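Exercise: predict the fold of this chain.
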Amino acid sequence: MNSALRFDADLLRRYDRPGPRYTSYPTAPQFTGAFGESVLRDYAMRSNAGAAARPLSLYLHIPYCESPCFYCGCNRLITRDREKGTRYLQSLQREIVLAAPLFERHREVVQLHLGGGTPNFLPPEEIAALIATLRGELNLSEAAGRDFSIELDPRFIAGGDIEHLARLGFNRASFGVQDFAPEVQQAINRVQSIEQTLAAIAACRKSQFRSVNVDLIYGLPRQTLQGFANTIDTLLGVRPDRFAIYGYAHMPHLFKAQRQIDAKALPDGEAKLQLLGLAIQKLAAAGYRYIGMDHFALPEDDLSTAQDSGGLHRNFMGYTTHADCDLLGLGMSAISHIGRSFSQNFRDLRDWEAAVDQGHLPVWRGLELSFDDVVRADVIQQLMCLGQIDIGAMERRHSIDFLGYFTDALNRLQPLIADGLVTAVGSFISVTPRGRLLMRAVAMCFDRYLSAPVSAPAAAAEQPRFSKVV
């Protein structure tokens, strides 16, 4: 993949409209309640068929946080009552016991991710109990190449916690930073010191974690170019393996906590673009490779090598390695991708707990993928992960005439080709360096569930379901 990236502010302005992040295709709004527990069981059992049954990737959702970060759009619960975490853990262990028998024991779990919320809301001994349950019920990999990761809040890491996680098998950590500027931290209700963050990263290095990721957000209230530059420079001093640079999406109609943010304190569109441009310039100068969307990695990091080898994948955890896995999501709101199906657990804690307590897999909704869904999902994965579509390979893989099958999509793509975001040469459709920051807009051309032209602005009165593409 051509890793070159060109920042074109004019194009970013013109194409900055709401669109999916394509952590799945079809996207979650297409899931329906017609997909229930029995359908998931059927897909899980079928996924065991034959010697080529795929390895497993696990996502476990830990929803609790001690205090709300006002920018957050995650499904989380705010409390300081540790007993609630203990009760949640007990229900999660019961769900593991219910789900594990659906997958044959020889299927190795090569990828594990604890997300949230704040997974280290659970004390070390409870995380150990969770891993013990997983090891007892599933075949957790012991290989050096395993990818066992956890999201951590540096404010709640005590001495010895990282070393303890390493002993449990974790080898990758992700830290939310957002911005070190005190005025920004006050505005988003996340006061986190530089010292806490750098100490947590240093502890991961000492415990020989293979990869450390840092999340930053541009477009936050009271954010300035100088403050954001200081944050990036501070972190570059300890050289994390990966950066995720997210654009803040102010959607208070969807996320109640965002109503605490003063919209007048948000950077305007031009300032937000300048913040993004600053981050790209600094990371490129420091030798980081642009992976796609909002992810940057060092050339030797697993994300970079997976992209080169064709093993990069995009799912509900963002960009990941191990593209050849079935994904099992556990915990409230978690999403699974088993075979040609997506399924999501209940988002509400009481509904999720009630289903588990009654001995049911807590399936809320899902989708069985049609042939068309599978073909388009493949195209969108190729775009999002590799930045190009190999037309000949697509035709052989799906027995289609690509140009005939995607006539409408190719028509929608023409303005993007004219604007220099995409080229169509020979048997390849490729995203250009000017278009790489707009890969979501390119992918939207192939999304049959979207009706508006990709280059059209959203209606002023529209309450978007998706964040803007920049």
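Check your answer against the key: The longest helix spans residues 82-99.
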